[in-house]
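Researcher: Here's my situation. A collaborator sent me these components and asked whether they could plausibly form a single complex. I don't have experimental data yet, so a predicted model of the whole assembly would be a useful starting point for our discussion.
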Amino acid sequence: MSWDDILGQDRAKRVLQVHLADGRVANGYLLVGPEGVGKRRLAIEMAKALNCTAGGSRPCDDCPTCRQIIRSTHPDVHFLVPGGPADQIRIEQIRQLLSRIMLRPFNATMQVAIIDGAERLTEEAANSLLKALEEPPAHTRFLLTTTQLSRCLPTIVSRCQVVRCQPLRLDLVQRVLLDGRHCEARTAETIVRLSGGSAARAIELAGRWSSYRQVLARLASGTPAAWIEEPSPETREEVTDLLDGMMAWLRDIAVAAVLDDPSRLAHAEHAETLRRQARSVDVDRCVELAFKLVGMRESLEQFVSPRLVASLARESWLSLREVKS
Ligand SMILES: [Zn+2]
């Protein structure tokens, strides 16, 4: 893996490479962008670039240091991810990290701490990190990532150099799906349109494509019977499929209501059904429901019962269909 193997993110790569070349690497970086667009890979590439023993401005990928970092086994490159029941980064994790990075590196030039999910730092954890972020030991650098800049504590953001990562171009997401043989070309076309430019999301969706298609069949069905006869989804994954499917479908209804262009639909193969539904429901209420579903998706992540969320989503969907029919 090298800078060139990271798809897209040309601007972010340029910023980091210029800082490396000029010898003005910031104490801390906050890589901001959607899930699955390469933030962590950029952080790992930085860790290699700061420590590669081959010299030169590009990591060689071949020296023992590069190889250990690629395998996540380098003693001076530390990874922190959220965990525990609330999926947070807790103060004990930060304390443990700080106690290690205050020491000199074992055998690298720089200790590098890669912290994924900066929005999930508890307030206590963030506070204990502040001083180190502001005045780290000379041999330490921090690389934080987040999908939600607005949820990061301002005190953390202000102490980092923010580097923005963009959604990937859809042709790049398609290449990831096809090169990795995650699905067939035809399925890939639909998944790419649903991916929002996230390679990780596309791969994940390809993995559960058969259950997602069942959700689509329900959404496409004009009768409430399709919902009542089918068993209600119960697991978190099933309900996630349902909510994601509904949100994408509602967006398609809104598009179909104003544009007669199937190529603009995520579910282009259902163009006729979508056009019919767009005529029979109130499009403003579709948009309202889409926002409501975003809230439900978040409550699912906050560990509200999946069964309850599924039942609320189903009720909302059926009431949407009652309006004009
Ligand atoms: Zn190297």
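Model: Some features of this prediction you could bring to your collaborator: Residues 52-54, 59-60, 62-63, 65-66 surround zinc ion (CB under 6 Å). The first helix runs from residue 10 to 22.
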